[in-house]
Amino acid sequence: MDADKGDTDKGKNDAEAGSSGATNTRDQLGKLLRDHRGYLYDLDDEDLLASDPRDLQDTKMDSDESFYRKRRNLEFSMMMMGRYYDPFQGHRMWGKHYRHGEELDEHTLQQLRWAPPVMVEPEAFEDEKLLGIEDHGDVVTDAALYILKEKKDGEVKIHSMLQMPSNIPELLEGTNKDYYETNTFNILMADVSCSMYCYWKPLVNSWNEHIAPCLVGRTNLYTFGSKVTFKRSGTILEFRDMDGSSTDLTGSLQTIVDEVYKCKERYVNVFLVTDGHHNSTEVKPTKVIYQMNAAKGKTCDVFVLGAGTDFPVQYSINIRSRLHNGRANLPSLFWAKSEDDVPEQIKQIASIISERSSRCIELSLPGYYLPDGVQKNFFHLREWVYFPSGPEALQRLALKFGRHICHISLEPREMRLSILNDVFRQWNSVIIQNQNKKERVPLGVLPFMECLFNTQIDAMKDLKSGTVKERLSRKEFKMYETDFRTLFNKIRDILTTFKYKNELELAENILSTTVGGGKYEVKALQLKGHTDEDFAKDYEDFLKIYEEHKPRILTINNTTEDCCRFTHSSTVSDLQDPDFSTMMSRSKYEFLKDFTISGIPVYAPSKDTVIINPWSFSVRSLLDEPYTVMSQVALESIADQNPPDTSQEMQVKQDDILTRCNAIIPVFSPTAAKIMQPVVNTRLYSVCATYAILKNPHIIDFNIHMAALGVTWVRILYEYPTIPRPEFVRRRIESIEATAALYLGRSSYTKYWQLLKSDAAQALMTESTIKVDNKTLKCETLIKPMFVLHMYQRSENHEDAGVVANIMRMILLEYIGRCLSHYKKNDRQATPFTDFFAYTLADQKLKREWVQNYIVEAKEKITGCESYLLENFYTLELARKAAKKSAIEEIKNLKKELTALIPIVVEMKEVERLRNPSLAGDLSWFTLKTFAREVGLKQEVIDDLFSERSVFVFTAHALRNRSSRERLSTPMGDYDENYALVTKSVQEENYRIIAKELIGKIINQLEDVWLIAHGDAHGEVVQPMTRQLILAEAQKRAVDVTDDTFDKVYKKYRPDVGLLSNACQCRACPYFLIPNKRYNQHSSVERRQTSMFPHGLHRAAYNHRESDLPTLISSLESGSFKTPVPRQAVEPFTEDLENLQRLYHEENSTGP
Could you tell me the pTM of the whole model? Predict the structure, then answer.
């Protein structure tokens, strides 16, 4: 050990000491901002750091000297929170400080230097250049005026709501008819990072099909990956525009602001599509967002489409809030949770664009977006306008557009709960936008909303059940009250929760509380809506069928087993009742409520998707004996007794949650089913079945009954997998099969069965490439083909076992495929093949053990003997380079080792745990086994289908082909082919990850070997050597040195302490006395732990050769000669210090 050598440079720590006043500063500034701006929530450091105290400057407030002084003090104190001077912007900012001297790439520097451009004023209307006003008199529009009642402390106050017309009256447009088309600018900014691959195809297709044809004016298309790229001026997006790099969200926002500010058009549509956070540069999007403001004089509609489950929700909302100044009832956010949702979201955006509602009309009376908000006269088409006064002054209004005026007359209408819900959603959108813009939010708006709603509810509670309207209103208010309470709680949560830990929860809350919520309900009404007029016609048609078949219906033997256990009635008994005709006078809702639909009572969780996709219906539980049959009449009677905020369900036994029931699956006994077929085929019965299952009186679904029968049958297989089953279960299955058989004659099911037999792959695709009757054939969930197969196998025309086995094989493949279709799809570090085929690598504990064993073996191959490393590598750096080179060479064998040493087998437990109710249906792997027995397959066939080899092939094929169409149109291959592909995939997934880890660990292991050898050779304290002794020893080791060349060979020899500066003096070292210009690196290894190294040992011993040992140690501790040395670092060398003192004393006494 050479303790007298110079130290290597030590790293400096830049830790900043926090001030005790920082917390108080945050609290003071936060309170100041809240008081001034009316925030409803607390602020954290990100908001405070993004706020300059000078923003608080207000003429009225600054007239208060104490406030001004307080603000100036806060400005000074904010320096403790990271305030710095930005050399690019030339003004003070808050937040992250870029370290001095850090080199930034040109792209980052450009983003740092960026500032919003000067705003360009839009071109004027042609009419704006003309003088005078042109009055066109009275016109008719679809504008509507509603009365708002607020009951508070016993007094009722009247307010008004106006819904703006959906179009500008033709007379108002004057010469400006083409102005919108020629003065609109559209900007698409599409994310083309690698994670967008799965969304790109549906995005391009749906954009070009739906949005592109709706766009007018000028359009610029941009993409952003690692950088923003201008693609073209035009409306068509292309597949080749995909980049596949990182996500430059900051650059995309800067480009959007540049384009919006500099364009000359009055109307601007901004489309932003992204699926991930910014990761391209160090300049965060907040830098742009905080400088972003709506373009004055222009109407800017912002459409933000988030894709997947990792898109930046808060950024998206902030961007939309700051840049958008168009219609208030535009959805705050569009969200495609998967690639399948992209077309639907694009269609919604296209429908909004096609309305061309960006234009404003001036009202003769000022109104408000929000109660107690900012008063204004200009409002967009279709918007809701609030007036604090009654409707008297609003019944005659003037509308102005440019220099044209017309007049409308409005008849006040009573506000309905459904309309009030739409008003609240617009208010919520405005509130969220103001909050994110850090603008004042009226504190009383939420209590006002609640008061308005309670007033409406109280009025409905007082209604008598006289007219049909009153009856319907009283029934529906329960649903609306539940919806409002949910909406109100969520918007309050949005406003009071400062930062969501899960941004997806924020997205869900915004979508469910603002404009654009309830997309399934809207689409269902468009596709399946059933009005009172439809009901009247269907009822007439039903009565004709009923009268025709009534004699046969009266012959049905209706037993107590077929009747509801509570009402003791059934569908058949109602039809047999001589007073059945009295129901003709009932309204639609009363009929649905009172006409008995008897069947199997189930608990089915409510899902919006069922309205669109009936086969996604799921049953959580079925009621057992004695409640085997019930009716919707029983559920309705329970609902009438429940308070309004409870769901429409009953629980037979209060202490047993499994007796919950909220839906009835209509069934008939085998003897009654055949006679009831004409009734079942009527539209009226379909409406009744839809209501019994979905509790939705407004739609008619011709597939929900068959779907619910299939789902219930599958649930029975799950709950009772073995035969024989209980008697009541057997009767249920017979009733389900008899009722479902009534639908098998429908064209849609017969054609589906023919395709399932002849081409199972096409029949099982979510969307087949084959069309039937010009409609795309769909397999919504796998319960559909399972139930259809089962029903036709029970018929006279059943298929042989080979056809059934092939269908079963394809069902198993598609079940695994649908469960894995989104498996870790957006996880860039995902290793799906490893998870399902290489358990050793998937399990982290086993993986660590395997890696450690591999390292040990690799080290033994590389190192040989320890001295070999030390003799061949003079410095640690050289040893490290050699170790890295050897490790890389060894890692080249890793791919082979991965599969040679690790078993590649399918993890059956992982497959058995797979579930995906929305895509595959509410079934499990074990239920599929039960189903295979139900369709008559022999046990040896079932064993083969569910064997490890078969499951291996299914899973491998499913992971390679994530979409249903690709999966079922691509040949599956045999076991050997799939084994080779899985092996290669496991290698590719793990090679880079494990290789990187292994290289580092192998290098560390080899370094340790070298360090141990070095430590053993340098363990003793270096002994001083005279010039003559060095010459003698060096010549023995063949060092070319003489007395004449000594000073040239051994530079800077220090004779007083007897130490060399360029050669090692440890006798055990293989480089003893061999000069080397890298000697400082050779010896610095001992000084890696600087604080515990005894610096200056030889110099201190020489200078204190005449002193006692305590004095010598004290000088080392004080750092008189070098860096201060702790006592615990000196104590191991006390004997060596005494020896050095003695040697230096003797040498000094004898002289040279």
Answer: 0.53
